[in-house]
């Protein structure tokens, strides 16, 4: 339940001393003050505190950006190793560095774009499934969204490829939900 900061005296705060590293300075001793810092998120509006889910636009921004970033980093690392393996004997250092950077940039861009598209489709389908199911927020929504994302992403490759990609998308979303639940149980203060 929401409580204004001035009424908050529960155990959900931790004491913070900004001068804890300055213990040796005796002239600062009178300035020591303790502050109560909350350990849970604070909201500007009461309505925001009641929301349990990100909005559709927040979901799209989060999933698309996160997927693109992870895909670009993964593709960049993969492309860098590919460029290192493709080096030929007798090449100068400039040519090798150019090959490695070009290969890493090309793979990172390609994989990042594909992952960003997957994140965009997943976020859209997750919001659609959430609204179609009467705003029920459980583990089935991401699994259905992952299934639909795989099917839509590989639909042009044929029905068999779409079915396999849909199954992989549903399994990946289910594994992510299970992993999140395990993390919540083992680390209850983690904001995931």
From TrEMBL:
For this protein, the record's InterPro entries field holds: Tim23-like
List GO BP terms, alphabetically: protein import into mitochondrial matrix
Put simply, this protein is called Mitochondrial import inner membrane translocase subunit TIM23-3-like
Q: Gene encoding this polypeptide? A: LOC113723592
Q: Any idea where this protein resides?
A: Membrane
Q: Which GO terms describe its cellular component?
A: TIM23 mitochondrial import inner membrane translocase complex
UniProt GO molecular function: protein transmembrane transporter activity
Q: Which PANTHER family match?
A: MITOCHONDRIAL IMPORT INNER MEMBRANE TRANSLOCASE SUBUNIT TIM23-3, TIM23
Q: Where are the transmembrane segments?
A: 161-179
Q: Which UniProt keywords apply?
A: Membrane, Transmembrane, Transmembrane helix
* A Pfam family that the UniProt record links to this protein: Tim17
């Amino acid at each position: 339940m929401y409580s204004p900061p001035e009424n908050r005296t529960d155990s959900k705060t931790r004491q913070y001393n900004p001068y804890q590293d300055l213990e040796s300075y005796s002239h600062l001793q009178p300035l020591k003050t303790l502050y109560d810092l909350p350990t849970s998120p604070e909201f500007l509006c009461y309505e925001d505190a009641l929301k349990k889910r990100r909005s559709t636009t927040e979901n799209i921004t989060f999933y698309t950006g996160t997927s693109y970033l992870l895909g670009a980093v993964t593709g960049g690392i993969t492309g860098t190793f590919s460029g290192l393996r493709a080096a030929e004997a007798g090449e100068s250092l400039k040519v090798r560095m150019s090959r490695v950077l070009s290969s890493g940039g090309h793979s990172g861009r390609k994989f990042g774009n594909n992952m960003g598209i997957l994140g965009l489709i997943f976020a859209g389908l997750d919001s659609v499934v959430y609204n179609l199911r009467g705003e029920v927020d459980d583990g089935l929504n991401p699994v259905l969204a992952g299934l639909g994302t795989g099917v839509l992403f590989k639909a042009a490759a044929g029905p068999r490829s779409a079915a396999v990609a849909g199954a992989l998308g549903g399994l990946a979303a289910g594994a992510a939900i299970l992993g999140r639940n395990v993390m919540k149980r083992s680390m209850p203060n983690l904001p995931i």
